[in-house]
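Protocol step 6 of 9: fold each sequence in the batch and record its structure tokens directly after the sequence line. For illustration, a two-sequence batch is reproduced in full.

Sequence one:
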Amino acid sequence: MRQTRSILSLLLVCAPLGAAPTTVTLPASTNTATQQQIHAEALNYAQQVLSAVNQIDTSYVRPLQRTELFYAALSGLYEAARQPVPRNLRTEVQQVKTDADLINLLVATRRSLGMNPLIQGHLAVMASCRALTPVLDPHSCVVNEEELQRLRHEGEVTGLGLELVENVGVGPLRIKTVYPGSPAQRAGLRPGDVIKQIDKLAVKGMTSAQVMGLIQPAIPLAVSMALDGTGGEVETEQDAPQSAPLALKIQRPGKEDWTVKLQPETYHAETVLGVMREESNRWDYFLDAKQKIAHVRISSLGKGTAAELQTAVQRIKSDGARGLILDLRWCPGGYLAEAVQIAGVFLEDGMIACVKNRGDGEQKYMNTTPHECRLLDIPLVVLINGETSGGAELIAAALQDQKRARVAGQRSLGKASVQTTLHVHLPGSIMKLTTGTFLRPSGKNLHRFPESKLHDDWGVLPDEALEFRLSPERNKQLKEWWEQQTLRPGTSNRLLPLDDPKADPQRQIALRGLTQLMDRAARR
């Protein structure tokens, strides 16, 4: 069924609709302009879906039946249009023998659904791409605008540093996210706070999108990230916006309404965090200043996290650190390259991970971190839990296999798959596809497959003496406490639960293991 791209392009333009297995009947009242628009949308739909399926067929981590992919894509189109899926659809897909007939089927199906507003424009392709993901795995997905917005809050960002809970003009304008290191964080704003007024404008009845338009500069980055039309990102040179300070009236339960003035600015979105903030809002990384024990947390593996960690490591080295807890709890992973560089900070030369791609064999990732940026001579404990995922697991596994660190906490998630972006045009979204899995340096499996059992090799297991499991409720509470610790501004004197080191039992276990390592090192 495969043809060259040039032949496919020719078929898209020239294939006669009369050859399609599905009969298209448009209403007699449909005018010529509308017919042309539907036909143009149908051709684009066919091209995009065919491209997506071909990329999945070639690159997905395991072989799949193309007929199942096309059936899922077309079923998703019918469901999005709120039309019943034809009983003979699967048979029609299975009977297709050539790419010409396949394209005709895609075009004819889209045309048969007409000018349905639920699938107009890019919505048809979006519906089919979303319908493809259940055939794949939980990590192959369409990433929506909200997730893309989070990705854009990496590195140097311009704005206030907050996002709102989405609404449609009904209900309060509630803050959903406050980004560490941003003006909103330094001003003491928290998730759950409600914006009542911006300058002298009452925002009641406005949508979250309208309010974000008021408080966010028109150009979010001095060098902004834009979609390149294929779902990838490209840099575009823009002039930095000149925005005046904004007066936000804030409501918080148990506190009288107050007004805070915020100046949109370029700030660094933090992903490497410490124990508590100094008055300047800079992180203090020392859990025990007397014993020189540092505690460094990594919240995600975004672009620049490795460089951020190297800066933190240089600080604690210059301050005489004698031991380090590297906290990867709740870290959802991120960029593979960042994970490799972070592991490399603590390791000698050698292999850090091996990625297996379908049909491409193995790709080994070696330690290329500059020697002057490494921290090799102090005891290290890595702290993980059931939400330690992806690249964060790679870091823990590499340090464990190389016997560089002890591991404390509880078993990690077991997500060792690698995702890449498909070249499909989905305005405001991208589609990620699992194209490989990575192995531990020892060669053992790290990924938890659907058929994996508890006793199988997957995830990272803590050292037996340093395992400390938490209930889901206790884990949620501890995660919320650390969010409070992260967002509390350095100028605040508000007491928090984690100001007491004993409030985090997993960290206490890690501290115990680290103290043992430090005692051994002192006796040498």
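Sequence two, same batch, same settings:
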Amino acid sequence: MKNIKHQLKYCISILILIGFISCQEEDQEFGDIIAPSNIVLDFDIVGQDSSNLNGDGSGLVNFIASAENAITFQYNFGDGTENLVSPSGSNEHRFTQNGLNNYVVTVIASGRGGISSSKTINVEVKSDFNPIEIKNILTGGASNSKTWHWHAAVSGHLGVGPPDSFDPSYYSAGPYEKEAVGCVYEDELVFTQDENENITFELFNQGNTYFNRFEVEDGLGLPNPGEDTCYEFNTSGVSNVSFSPSSSGVPEDISTQTSFALQDNFMSYFLGNNEYEFLSISENEMHIRIIQTEPSGATLAWYQKFATINPNDEDGDCNGDTGEVGSGNNDVLIWAEEFETDGAPCAGIWNYDLGGNGWGNEEAQFYTNRPENIIIEDGLLKITLIAESYEGSNYTSSRIQSKDKFDFKYGRIEARAKLPEGGGTWPAIWMLGSNLSEVSWPDCGEIDILEHKGNNQDRIYGSLHFPGNSGGNSVGSSVSVPNVSSEFHLYEVQWTASTIKFLVDGQEYYTFSNNTNVPFNQEFFIILNVAMGGTFGGTIDPSFEQSTMEIDYIRVYQ
């Protein structure tokens, strides 16, 4: 099936035709109603030759149907995919079940008044395409099921852009932006794999479906409401899932090159299409792309992110609590990273910055994504700075950031952390303006929630960088805090349109008067890293071996 819209349009056209006949039954100019006859159904298996009698393993078959007195043709391919309407009778279809399989293919030729005849043949086709790794991640493995939810806590969990740019440049939803809609974040998407590696899908949404405004007319027969809207719509039932190599043209570095289709269903948001492409998939998050064709004929590329985290639960695989009420101003918890799942940082929240070019500060480390340098263990994120020869550098560490995955404007951000020690060490928990790519630094603004240098042990620095006040000329202050490398402390910034306050363990030590002339009135993203040496870290202790920054949690309140 190309999409749900096509099937609905076909059904509607038949009803209109039947209604016309009933009203004009005395009008002989319409012509006699004659059933299509002499149906011929030919096929050509792609790659078939004397050595490959069942094709080249692509599973592709070209079908050509013809008949006398036929207006249109409808195919049932016998593989669980939706029936396809073909006015010309020609169609290329990909059979995706792995191995050599026999399919019973039926074509229905329809004539005037909807009267039809059919033809059935057997086709034996070979398919070598079996993305078993993706299947196992999607479902949890053979004889298992996995439930997915909207990854509501990250930016861009719903977005749209032009089909040839491969990013949601037109629109990207912020964290929990669709919560007020009321019928989105409750959805549960369940994928199941049987013992034969076949996949099925079920959508549980309590009968309330989020419709794209352009699809309401075709999906429900209602006029375009002018905005995306929730409607009652039955999505119950089990749907087969078929997989195929992607033909979208999305580059390999941002796509798995694997697509899938849902028979008679869709991924929560009704876009009139049920064919999707996996841009990426991990144990905890998947990022998919879908093409929508608007009534005008224009095409859009939609992007959706799902995770195993339930956005309505207090705990999740990657994130912690959401929606909890605290005390004082900015007291509603909108996002939290609790670091509760052992292993690598959650790919749905964090990006790695990799390399060793000094990062503009004459730093000495090479940033990696190795577990030796960054790992979650025992409820803590651990970033370890190691003295070792690696990729031309004498030190390794790690840096992660949430750009395009979690951004926010104003609020109270808390980080509970224990810091590394040693001459030259430079741990930081900080933020940059999300427009960094457009305006560069320092025009984007920088908020340093905490910085520490091992050459001045137990002194915490908080600072702001912006045009005219950046680098060594930043504004801020510092405070003496005992035992920062042996005990956890709470580092905090309270950020509003009028002030930016810096605190440690609840004690304020610096306040900045925010105003419209500085870049602190836009969305920012979070960065975590441990650097070595450089303009701030200073002289490196030659006896240094390794030390670790441990972060218990990061929480954002508004």
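Proceed to step 7 once all outputs are recorded. Observation for sequence two: The chain has a mean pLDDT of 87.
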